[in-house]
Fold this sequence. Notes:
alpha/beta
Amino acid sequence: xxxxxxxxxxxxxxxxxxxxxxxxxxxxxxxxxxxxxxxxxxxxxxxxxxxxxxxxxxxxxxxxxxxxxxxxxxxxxxxxxxxxxxxxxxxxxxxxxxxxxxxxxxxxxxxxxxxxxxxxxxxxxxxxxxxxxxxxxxxxxxxxxxxxxxxxxxxxxxxxxxxxxxxxxxxxxxxxxxxxxxxxxxxxxxxxxxxxxxxxxxxxxxxxxxxxxxxxxxxxxxxxxxxxxxxxxxxxxxxxxxxxxxxxxxxxxxxxxxxxxxxxxxxxxxxxxxxxxxxxxxxxxxxxxxxxxxxxxxxxxxxxxxxxxxxxxxxxxxxxxxxxxxxxxxxxxxxxxxxxxxxxxxxx
Length: 348
């Protein structure tokens, strides 16, 4: 029995060694693959929305018509499509195109990294008669992130392109900083727009530390290097300077919005409030009511080519998981703050 156990133990040790070796090889191959993908960077992906709408219509027709009528109608449409393609073969470059972009913003405006690549891609092909449609959803966030996002949209306007921004849900604060760049701003009836204001929240734990006889020193070079601190003692001078900085950012925000939407009465709309679509339209924060879905279907019916452009960055799986978790936490915190600050505006 002892001999059998000894042989079994030796066999088990050998098996574990082989398995460990295989795992090491696999891990090395995965790591090398990830390093190669990270060196490759990202890629622009393009899909034709017209084909998606055609597929939807075809599925409904197949279900609602008998096979004979369905085949006859399909044959007729196929023939008409070939005729149109032949007519446009010589002037394909003259076909009016709509480039469709998406921006789903979080507090740090992470989506700006993809937006800058998508805008660069569009500018390689777009002509003045083309349109860029941005489906925008963002409750706002950090000033520098959304300032860069707005600057990317300015690149489109500077090239003479028509920029349509559709807000189906929310474009507030930094989101509206982007939305106001539009040649035409379309908002759903209950989309939230506005929040032209600046917010800063700084907790202070100084008294808690003091209660436990813990000192915290803040050493700076420069009078206003640190105005408010989380752990040290805050002064009235620091608070005054911090408020001055907030007011200056607010002034810059208002100047930016006024430059791109001069029709606005800034004294009325730059209070930090948000308005639903119908109210926002009355205040001229939006140009018309509607949804991105209806706008795109109308463009497809008019014969325009709809090209959905997206940039996908190839990242190691660890970074992708980290980004997903960070985004989930960020959205959770944002929702919690919104519920605390505006409990009456939520449909329960």
